[in-house]
Design goal:
single chain, alpha+beta, ten-stranded antiparallel sheet, four-stranded antiparallel sheet, 33% helix, elongated
Length: 523
């Protein structure tokens, strides 16, 4: 065990997170042991949920076959609820039951899947995983309401899942999981007419909105994918509570409306003019249909409220030729860094409305070389010193040493900053961006850097053809020069537009010492 890395990993956690992790683990174990000791726990009438529009769920189930993350698994009589062949995230999708909301799924098919899950629930890894429980509550309550399901055994099982969640939210994670716990408890509180669920939900949402939604509207994990997922939960909650029309919900609705407007504004700020959302940190294809969120918000009368980009650490520059999103954030949030990448001073660039320099993306959450690479500094458009990561990302969701940004300066057409991610090597990285009508100038300086090898990386969209000649790069629309480069290489790599997909692409590696000036210019 790497003791120093472990210390760096836990030092940013709050003491309460560590205590809550122990409580959560003990509660899961106790609940599993007591699984068959409960009698029927719910005998009251449920309150069917209703929404102004149905969720648009991509098709992932057909009889005898599930397809998640672009990977399909065929089964015979019973779904393989504990199958980990395609990793934990795939298994989570299976046990979350979002496919119950497919437009063409028959009531009998859905009930068959639910009953089979309950029949084989003993030993199911996700049965008392609070995030999985939250997803089941969200999806089963919607399915039960849509199809007027009244089977007491099914309703009781779901009530016991909600009761377990109310006592065991994921306070130890302090990330999107905890918000999902809150949304699930809110849904359960309305469906079961259970005040203790609603009170727990309102408390979680109020506290975590304050912590997790930044002043410029970003969710603090800075993943457009999770941002979109949470925004949809907020809009669904507004829709549900408005139609319920209970005066007691007024303040909760007002809070949800406020956050929805801010979060819509952040999406508008970071989106590119061609409609693309950038793949930042852990982001997959869930963010591709973000336009539907704006239509949903508009139907609810939610006004988009864009704020100047600030606390999220992103800056946007655009003119008639270029559009660039720059990341000047260190690795954050420190209390929940699991979906963060070692990508300080990374950027994404569109030229004439089309993607040119891109993020590698994320193809997997499964621990291994692919996951390690996709979180690494070398998988982003920034600088690595001595082939090391700026921040110490490891495992699937772990982070040890973290880069911090300082000396930030910015104007209308420029931004510069420094980070200390390489302080153990005795080095600092300074980077500046200057943005003009026909040229972008990126200046990198390693201080002190005379003896430290550094490499700048630039990942090129798969549709862009580059030619390397005399240390310069040429494409259809721009040419790129490197002042101070020791060598310029055009290397094979991949990009991942969605989970489970890796497409061949090119990246540029520029080796230098001390200083490098990169000019991206129109011919």
């Amino acid at each position: 065990m790497n003791i120093l890395r472990f210390i760096q990993t836990v030092r940013s956690f709050q003491a309460d997170q560590i205590r809550q992790k122990m409580v959560y683990s003990l509660a899961k174990s106790k609940a599993a042991r007591a699984l068959h000791k409960y009698s029927l726990a719910y005998s009251s009438t449920v309150f069917p949920l209703s929404y102004s529009q149905d969720a648009c769920i991509p098709r992932s189930y057909e009889p005898g076959r599930f397809t998640f993350l672009n990977k399909a698994l065929v089964f015979d009589a019973s779904p393989p609820w504990n199958d980990m062949k395609f990793g934990k995230l795939w298994n989570l999708r299976l046990n979350s039951f979002e496919y119950l909301l497919q437009e063409d799924l028959l009531k009998e098919e859905g009930l068959g899947l639910i009953k089979d899950f309950i029949k084989h629930s003993s030993g199911n890894r996700t049965l008392f995983d609070a995030y999985s429980v939250s997803q089941r509550i969200l999806n089963w309550t919607t399915f039960f309401s849509k199809h007027s399901v009244s089977d007491p055994a099914l309703i009781d099982f779901l009530y016991r899942q909600a009761n377990y969640l109310s006592g065991n939210p994921e306070f130890h994670l302090r990330n999107n999981h905890l918000l999902e716990n809150g949304f699930a408890l809110l849904r359960a509180g309305v469906y079961f007419q259970e005040q203790k669920f609603k009170k727990s939900a309102a408390k979680i949402l109020a506290e975590e909105f304050q912590r997790q939604i930044l002043r410029d509207g970003a969710h603090f994990e800075l993943s457009p994918m999770y941002h979109c997922i949470l925004l949809r939960r907020i809009l669904e909650s507004i829709d549900l509570l408005r139609l319920r029309n209970d005066p007691e919900d007024t303040s909760l609705i007002s809070m949800l409306e406020d956050k929805a407007g801010l979060m819509c504004g952040w999406l508008m700020n970071i989106a590119f003019d061609n409609g693309d959302l950038p793949q930042l940190n852990d982001s997959g294809d869930e963010s591709h249909n973000w336009f539907s969120l704006f239509r949903y918000a508009d139907s609810l009368g939610i006004k988009c409220r864009p704020k100047v980009l600030g606390p999220s650490g992103f800056r946007k520059f655009r003119n008639r030729h270029f559009e660039m999103l720059v990341d000047i954030n260190g690795l954050t949030p420190s209390v929940a860094p699991g979906h963060s990448h070692a990508d300080t001073f990374h950027f994404i660039l569109h030229v004439f409305g089309s993607p040119f320099m891109v993020d590698t993306g994320v193809s997997t959450y499964t621990q291994g070389p692919e996951r390690a690479y996709e979180r690494s500094t070398q998988a982003h458009n920034t600088v690595a010193i001595a082939n090391k990561d700026q921040s110490e990302v490891y495992g699937s969701f772990r982070v040890g040493r973290k880069a911090s940004v300082f000396n930030l300066k910015e104007s209308r057409n420029s931004v510069s900053a420094s980070h200390n991610g390489y302080k153990l090597l005795g080095a600092l990285h300074h980077r500046s961006f200057e943005f003009t009508d026909r040229e972008i100038i990126i200046r990198d300086k390693i201080d002190p850097g005379a003896k430290l090898p550094a490499s700048a990386f630039f990942h090129v969209h798969k549709n862009c053809m580059l030619k390397l000649k005399d240390g310069k790069l040429f494409s259809k629309f721009v040419q790129i020069s490197f002042e101070g480069a020791r060598s310029v290489q055009l290397c094979d790599t991949w990009i991942s537009p969605s989970f489970g997909v890796r497409l061949p692409a090119k990246k540029v590696r520029v080796d230098f010492s001390g200083e490098l000036v990169t000019r991206i210019a129109l011919p």
